[in-house]
Amino acid sequence: MNKKSVNPSYKKIISLVPSQTELLVDLGLEDSIVGVTKFCIHPINLRKNKTIIGGTKNIKLDKIKKLNPDIILCNKEENTKEIVEACLQIAPTHVSDIFTLDDSKKLIKEYGDIFSCKTQAQIIIKKLDSEILQFQKFIKNKRERTVAYFIWKNPWMVAANNTFINHLIELNNFKNIYKNLNRYPEIELQDIKKGNPNLILLSSEPFPFKEKHINEIASHATQSKVILVDGEMFSWYGSRLLKAFDYFKKLHNSI
Question: What is the CATH number of the domain that holds 225?
Fold first, then answer.
């Protein structure tokens, strides 16, 4: 919790993070959500029923103030320091900072404590632990593959070390050729052949890579297999993880 005390009576919630918004719904808190971002797409009907307060990095403070929230939920990566500081002037503000699955489970537990839904939080954590264990058994005998994971085009950007994406890449027994770099570095596309990855993964978000981009990248890495992947499964750290591990199994079986 950021600087202000936790109050279990928080009833009007604004979430500035799509992954956390979905988690709130799965914790049974949909009725308490009053504001979300335009990127909060799960569940699909949520944006029709809640006030849209902008994007994750471009919020409408006037709309937030009018909603008179009891608490605002942010994330260190998704939202800027300036956004967090502005939110703190309006209401108590919780800022998550997620790098690993343990961090994700800690956040779920924190939400259970903050919003008095501990039982449902524990149910989600227990299901997640089961999914992780089953996947670890599945992946145990899979051969290691080198990968590059693209998140943006013009400039070309990849997921590197100290990211939740890299944590899940490694959990999949993939070796990130850009692990020697930090966070989300820009790279020169023509240099990708130097790393000679077995796989090049094109994420569906934040840049919406499509089939048309496969050939463009493949022309610079003729020995690599280029595939589209669901970015939510590699980067959403809330209850979306309950669906991620089945997705990863299908991904491995397809390659």
Answer: 3.40.50.1980
